[in-house]
Write the structure tokens for this entry.
Amino acid sequence: KFDKDGVRILAGMDYDLGGESANYFRATLGNLQTAERLAQSNKGRRITGGVIDDSYIADLQAAQQHTRRNLDRIYADHNIAEVYTQVTKALSSHPDQMRKFGENLAEYSKVLTDTDPKYKAKILRDLALVHVAFGDKEPSIGGSREHYVNAQKYLDSSRLLDETSTDRAQIERLILRAR
């Protein structure tokens, strides 16, 4: 859904354009892992509401698994043609917001010093997808084919971080179609 605050998970597609939800899930997972380590080292201690025991630790582990499943859905393969359709619709109805979104995502990708290569590769693929959409729509909103060049650059960079993504291959086909 595109709104005044930006793009979120695209409805029914599990596609997190811009990686905001993935970033929250990643932070949640890190916090749950820290909580589990602390619980392990404090097992048997009394806390508000009870004692840290094996069931408390199991609950933390279950929450971690749930969070990982959500991340796996974001990192999984998608129907990029459907995602692309939603992105171009957002671009048609909100060109200024989408332009700002693309600019912000490009800046974010430059300063992202992340240890998770899948996350950075996902951000770069999102940038490529946005550039393809702009390249396809720009004649009507005053742009150039430079977007296809940028899309290919971001896609090539994402390949170095995550060679297994079929999303990348689908975005590549969109770029090739435009040439």
About this structure: The first strand starts at residue 2 and ends at 3. The beta strands are 2-3, 6-7, 9-10, 15-16, 46-47, 50-51.
